[in-house]
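job 3f2a | input accepted
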Amino acid sequence: MIAGYLKVNSQLISQQGIVTIAQRSQLSSQYGPKTTWLPPHRSVTQNVTIDATNDYFSMLKVNKSKATATLTNRSSEKKFNITAGHTSYKILNQLKPGQYQIKVTNPTNHRQKIWLVKTHAYQLGQDSATTPSPTWGKRSFVYLFSQNRVYYDQSSSDIVKVRK
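job 3f2a | predicted structure (164 res):
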């Protein structure tokens, strides 16, 4: 049944793209989101499994933060270059199915703001982020993996195609 759907809709899918896995949250300004301070020379990691080939990854970034991000295939240990923009980190590269680790590091001597969703009593994402302090509780990055280079546009709340 799914194979038939994919065959019939393959042209539409290739034009619009597919979000294959995402951890979204209500971090838009209307909800008054709070950032988390990452201490100097510390990191936060989160493991994620992707079951399909993707060609786009993005994650929210606090504007003006000097924190850096990496995405690593845990099996092959291949690290992917992540481009840091004003409000997101992103990769335009083929990402094969497998186990990955998202890592945000503060390479500076000053604390840096990062986005981490506090999950309270419920579980977001597949695994919680591993944080420098157990008092932070369960947290998750806000990220998205997609096929055909689509992303979540916060200003319009739409899934849109990456401009080439």
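job 3f2a | The first helix runs from residue 2 to 8.
job 3f2a | closed
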